[in-house]
Amino acid sequence: MTTAISIEDVRREVKILKALSGHKHLIKFYDACEDANNVYIIM
User: Fold this and answer.
1) Which residues cross the membrane (predicted)?
2) Among 4, 8, 18, 24, which residue has the fewest nearby CB atoms (within 10 Å)?
């Protein structure tokens, strides 16, 4: 992640995915993790 805005965008996306997880018409969200350079969203 390069900027604070990018980091907040990804965190917001993960929060939305968590909230929608379990909906029968959407892909299942399992987890998210990050290292020093990347964020990983496991679906």
Assistant:
1) none
2) 24
- Please give the average pLDDT of every successive group of 10 residues along the chain, which has 43 residues: 79 92 89 88 93
Distance between CA 17 and CA 26 in Å, rounded? 9
Number of Cβ within a 10 Å radius of residue 39:
16
Q: Quote the tokens at residue 36.
A: 């020093």
Are 27 and 20 in contact by the 8 Å Cβ rule? The answer is no
- Residue 18 to residues 24, 28, 36, 37: CA-CA distances in angstroms? 14, 9, 22, 22
Query: What pLDDT shows up at residue 26?
Result: 87
Measured at the alpha carbon of residue 41, what is the angle toward residues 36 and 43, in degrees to the nearest 5? 160
